[in-house]
Amino acid sequence: MAPRIILAPDKFKGSLTARQVADAVGEGIRRVRPDASITWVPVADGGEGTVDAAVAAGFEPCEVEVTGPTGEEVRTSFAHNGSVAVVEAAAACGLYQLPGGVLAPLTATSRGVGELILAALDTGCRTVVLGVGGSACTDGGAGLVAALGASLLDADGREVGPGGGSLIDIAHLDLHRIDPRIRDADLVLASDVDNPLLGIHGAATIFGPQKGASAGEVAALEAGLTHWARLVAQHTGLDVADRPGAGAAGGIGFAALAVLGARRSGGIDVLLDLVGFDHVVRDADLVVTGEGSLDTQTLHGKAPVGVADRAARAGVRTIAVAGRQLLDADQLRTAGFAAAYPLTDLEPDLRRCQSEAAALLRQQGERIAREQLAATP
């Protein structure tokens, strides 16, 4: 009987999309086992690539123009299937959307994320999955809330400027004009980030420097976020700044939880449910997952571990492909991987691993077929 393989990798960041990873591994497997039955299920953990993964699973892409992280219009998309939409925060305010790649830690806004949500509601969607990760902003989701109709004014009654650097200027907050469809929608915050909004593990301190913030700017962002959280708590009666996930995507998680009434779920679990992974994996002989780097971050709820966990529940072995592999044997086992196939086994030069990833993955696909499928009749 032909072996049945499920290919469910995440992207190799900066190199290949999840689908391209799956295609390359699949080509390699078929070179050795042309009889193999292969199902592609590209995945993501809520960050960049989440919409692509949903589209690969059969969701329909919908292109829209929204406000980018520094105010310019960007053309991007969300995915929808019936009444369910998948929205990716990075698609509107991601680091890759910054013009010229110039960082803007104090002024980058999440406004476009709110516009994406509105666009999803306009199509008739009533469940909105909001994947967060890779944002360029640290505005606590204030831009998102403003796009949905909230009023954020300074002491002179003027609308405050964009970005986390202006949060400290908010004197008047009015949430009553938020689009009423939000109240009737089921908003799911898809995030594996468990950071709170404030403090030493918060959005400004942990992620601000990655977005270009100096030590002084981190302090300014922290002060602004603290002020913003206090205002929101006063108006909603909800103090969620310390809740896990509130610090996701520069505080977009906070706004989603406190203002929009979102419920948080692990990003990979949400996506696997959307694509019907539990049904697909039944009776499979092997699952192949992976990401660019298998390291200690992988162990904290990243996509490959989520895939391995779901496969294990179905009694199916999981192996991983990666650009590089930094986990020891015990960590690999704990993560649920029966084996790992890093590209560095074939090419020690990391730059060549990145530039020649597809060819190397095809070779690893051949190895996987020889070593993992040899016993399959």
Strand order of the largest sheet: 3-4-5-6-9-10
- List how many beta strands DSSP finds: 13
Which CATH class of the largest domain is shown? Alpha Beta
* Structural class by secondary-structure content: alpha/beta
- As a percent range, the share of helical residues equals 25-40%
How many helical stretches? 15
Can you tell me the overall shape? elongated
Q: Would you tell me which CATH topology of the largest domain applies?
A: Glycerate kinase, domain 2
Q: What is the chain-wise order of helices and strands?
A: EHEHEEEHHEHEEHEHHHEHHEHEHEHH
Mean pLDDT reading: 94
Overview of the molecule:
- This protein folds into two domains: 4-43 and 277-373, Rossmann fold; 50-265, Glycerate kinase, domain 2, CATH 3.90.1510.10.
- The strands form three sheets. It has a six-stranded mixed beta sheet, with helices on both faces.
- It has helices at residues 18-32, 50-56, 89-93, 111-122, 142-147, 181-184, 203-207, 215-236, 252-258, 267-274, 277-280, 303-313, 329-335, 350-355, 357-372; strands at 4-7, 37-40, 60-67, 73-81, 84-88, 127-131, 151-153, 172-174, 186-190, 263-265, 286-294, 318-325, 339-342.
- The protein starts with a strand and ends in a 5-residue tail after the last helix.
- It is elongated, with a radius of gyration of 21 Å.
- It has 377 residues and is of the alpha/beta class.
